[in-house]
Specification:
seven-stranded mixed beta sheet, Aspartate Aminotransferase, domain 2, 41% helix, alpha/beta, Aspartate Aminotransferase, domain 1, 447 residues, binds pyridoxal-5'-phosphate, globular, four-stranded mixed beta sheet, 2 domains
Length: 447
């Protein structure tokens, strides 16, 4: 029988069908809500992307508390997805809830600054060693503005992205690399002109970057310090970041690090953990503790540009509002304190060690991805160094099985192409519960 990554497709399909039926049978209220929603909302959800995150029907939520999610059918899940890295703080964290409630009572939206912004900018400056910060309503918005600033400040048009990137859903970053290396729109509705300022290099291949930078037309290289949006984690090779910094400096190109996901690695994200030296850092997701927010920090030269011509790069009526700033202050000053990251990283390593052990014991080639609090599945066992290699890890039906199997046993698995991650409320026992569920699935897959 044909096998892929050590398991037969027939067995994967049989288990997936059994588990999906069980999953959907046990969630009649979610099914009813989705059916009711269909005429009102495309794909039965308030944002169509939600329905494509999982193969099973949408699961409607009642509430969340810490590491737990409760659905409308009364099922409780240990959350290892953290809403795709956007609630590292856990759900309904009291300090954040109280700060947000207090701010709402005092007014949430003025289009005028509140003092919380000063505290938040100061704290981010300390963590990321960049002096000046701006705020938006999402990381997507922050990326858009950061790219405008980079182009405005350098007077150049092009931006280098790495194949396999994801930096949000602004038109220009919804570009993918075609076989011939050109940037093409990823979705209907995005014009070739929208992505005409994008050019692609290959992660971990400094020559491919150098080649583009030598044209003297590149305003910025935008990358995650470790890629997290393409079938798990793609780690930088040992010299990649120092080479990237050298090459960008040499050619007058700005280096923008998007730490929207990797911020969970440490108080200053991977910038801090790995002592990186970017010109700008982009943040979002977890720094709002569930309140939508984005941020970007920059060197003083870029801040000077913003003082004069560059201010026009910014703007959103609801950006940097009082509610966002109150949430961020509570997150950064009261909740995501320096030491919580180490504990989450320890649990992430426990997840990764456990995935390796379960796989080895079962004779499977699978090995774990490792990135501080975050793990994942490298099904072939060979860690990818770029997106093309990562694409060879694709096994959508196996991923769908992992997800429903966990769901039926109280584990909320990461979205496809991502990986389970520990938040600040998780314990060793939670990780062990995850691994126990995995072991039981693997046993069924290989026996
Ligand atoms: C690295 C990175 N940047 C930016 C974004 C966009 O974040 P948002 O969807 O919150 O705007 C994401 C979303 O997953 C991301 O992974």
């Amino acid at each position: 029988m044909t096998q892929k990554f050590g398991v037969t497709q027939v067995r994967v399909e049989a288990l997936r069908q059994r588990e999906t039926e069980r999953f959907e049978r046990a969630r009649p209220k979610s099914a009813q809500l989705t059916a009711r929603a269909h005429p009102r909302m495309a794909r039965g959800v308030p944002m169509a992307w939600m329905s494509s995150l999982y193969e099973h029907q949408p699961v409607w939520v009642e509430s969340g508390a810490g590491k737990w999610i409760l659905d409308v059918d009364g099922h409780r899940y240990l959350d290892f997805n953290l809403a795709d890295s956007s609630v590292f703080t856990g759900h309904a964290r009291p300090e954040i809830t109280e700060a947000v409630a207090a701010r709402l009572a005092l007014g949430a939206q003025f289009l005028q600054p509140t003092e919380d912004a000063l505290v938040v900018a100061g704290e981010l400056a300390r963590r990321f060693a960049l002096p000046s910060w701006q705020f938006t309503a999402s990381a997507t918005n922050a990326v858009s503005e950061a790219l405008r600033v980079a182009r405005g400040a350098t007077g150049r048009n092009l931006v280098v992205l790495f194949d396999g990137h994801y930096h949000g859903h602004a038109d220009e970053t919804q570009a993918i690399r075609a076989v011939d290396g050109a940037a093409v729109p990823q979705w209907a509705g995005i014009l070739p002109g929208h992505v005409s300022g994008i050019t692609f290099a290959v992660f971990n291949d400094i020559e491919s970057v150098d080649l583009l930078l030598r044209t003297g037309r590149v305003a910025a290289v935008l990358t995650e310090p470790a890629m997290t949006n393409h079938q798990g984690v793609i780690l930088p090779s040992p010299n990649f970041h120092s080479d990237l910094r050298r090459a960008t400096r040499e050619h007058g190109t700005l280096l923008l690090l998007d730490e929207t996901h990797t911020q969970m690695a440490g108080p200053g994200g991977l910038t801090g953990r790995w002592n990186l030296d970017p010109d700008m850092v982009i943040l979002g997701k977890s720094i709002g503790g569930g309140v939508p927010v984005g941020a970007y920090g920059m060197r003083s030269e870029l801040a000077t540009f913003m003082e004069t011509d560059g201010w026009g790069a910014t703007g959103g009526t609801l950006f940097a509002n009082a509610l966002q700033m109150a949430a961020c202050r509570a997150v950064l000053v009261e909740v995501l304190l320096d030491d919580v990251y180490d504990n989450a990283a320890r649990l992430g390593a426990r997840l990764a060690d456990g995935i390796d052990v379960v796989s080895i014991e079962a004779g499977l080639p699978w090995r774990a991805h490792r990135l501080f609090n975050r793990s994942g599945y490298c099904f072939s066992g060979t860690q990818p160094t770029n997106a093309a290699e990562a694409r060879t890890q694709l096994h959508p039906s196996l991923w769908a099985l992992l997800r429903v199997y966990g769901g039926n046993r109280g584990v909320w698995e990461a979205i496809e192409g991502s990986g389970p991650a520990a938040g600040i409320d998780h314990t060793e026992a939670d990780v062990d519960h995850y691994l126990h569920t995995l072991r039981s699935l693997v046993h069924e897959l290989v026996s």
